[in-house]
Fold this protein.
Amino acid sequence: MSAKPQDLPSPLPHFVDGEAFAGQGARSGDILNPATGQVSKQVAFASGDDVRAAIASAHAAFPGWAGTAPAKRAQVMFKFRELLHQHMEELAVIVSSEHGKTIDDAKGSITRGLEVVEFACGIPQMLKGEYSEAVATSVESYSMRQPLGVCAGITPFNFPAMVPMWMFPVAIACGNTFVLKPSEKDPSCSYRLAELMIEAGLPKGVLNVVNGDKEAVDTLLTDDRVQGVSFVGSTAIGQYIYETGCANGKRVQALCGAKNHMVVMPDADLDQAADAVMGAAYGSAGERCMAVSVVVTVDDSTADALIEKLAPRVKGLRVGPYTDATAEMGPVITPEAKDRINGYIDRGVESGARLVVDGREVTVSGHEDGCFVGGCIFDNVTKEMDIYKDEIFGPVLSIVRAGSYEEALGLVNDHEYGNGTAIFTRDGDAARDFVGRVQIGMVGVNVPIPVPVAYHSFGGWKRSLFGDHSIHGPEGVRFYTRLKTVTTRWPSGIREGAVFNFKAGGEH
Ligand code: NAD
């Protein structure tokens, strides 16, 4: 029988060395149900010593796990995949009850994580390396990828299942051990995933979870035993993680904030574009790093026609708790997030944008203290406005009217963020030009949220990613491994005498 979220202990402990670990930390935090605004449980906050206990466990487990054949490591991933399917309902309720997203959306996000696990099942193929016979007489060269050691993952609130699974399955399949620090706002899913990994046959210590805040993160960033750090979250924190981690000699990838523009050309299929905007702007209450938060229309008639299609649908969005199967959009994460989003809407109005649909007064009967914000549309947004410049991370869409394709492209390229973008058009020339010239990491053509599948890699440009590697897929394997290149001479007895000159390839 599956555990229910309420069956998980409170305060939620850490998970160290294969079991629950209460730790010595004196602090704890509240976990809210965003649909009710009520505290549902507590989570323990790790002290520095608690985090060091998790790192010590991962460090001790590393030699044995790194020495386990990749095919054996993959077997754990196969079993974990089965367990994820078996526990899908339970995990979705855990995600929705702490994050607020609808159950179907939670399942979709778990499935996206599960696909990374499937990618990790094929790790022997990814670690095969390269071999060159006879690079010189009796000399061969080969390269291989070896795990880094203890890796850490620091994850955001908006995808409590998927983002941790962007990280630890690939890291662990590559032979690393892992310490995960999930968001303190919705940490229970990570704890449950760690339990399931043990059930799948993972040796204790290979995956540990520590809960907490800056104290836990700073310990991970400064401990010499941690070799690699993956971060997903906001840009200000990501930049800090990147700089601090690198200053402490670690490999760091920090995937950060976004302001994703969807360009709608005059020849686009506007019904298709309107459908796309609905899901991409308002799904998960806009709390997605790939949410479309700006639509750039090329010419006024495109804007007018699109707004006419969107406005009634946004007004009619069904907002509700995850327990309401008909809800299309859940609450935002906390009362503070709701206030911040409403503050942006106030400022948008003050700055002269036209609020076509106002979601500020939306309430849900029986959930009056829930953190609900209705869908909003602003028209006539300009690039000087805060609602355009900042990531609002809520269900607020800005429409910017561009006079030409070049102006639209310039807007996308001038924005500080570079996570995702899309163009909607029937014109192959325009689409091709856009794909080539746009300064963004993930690009869609008539696809609004171009999230790469698990066997490609996910990552933005500009201030949406610090570090050289995107996450999961081939880039994930590169991040979690180091390249070693070996040159051998067999038979070993061939003598050339002492050689003092550097030689051309082929003359070792
Ligand atoms: P956040 O930056 O507040 O928190 C992320 C993690 O950092 C959490 O685990 C948190 O505990 C930790 N943290 C927070 N403050 C810290 C500090 N001062 N020092 C050290 N650690 C700290 O982000 P969030 O609000 O949880 O998530 C939303 C953000 O994540 C948005 O900006 C969104 O765009 C971004 N995000 C990006 C991607 C991507 O792939 N680019 C994916 C999902 C979310």
The chain has a mean pLDDT of 96. The chain has two domains: 14-256+464-484, 260-445. Residues 260-445 form a domain with the Aldehyde Dehydrogenase; Chain A, domain 2 fold (CATH 3.40.309.10).
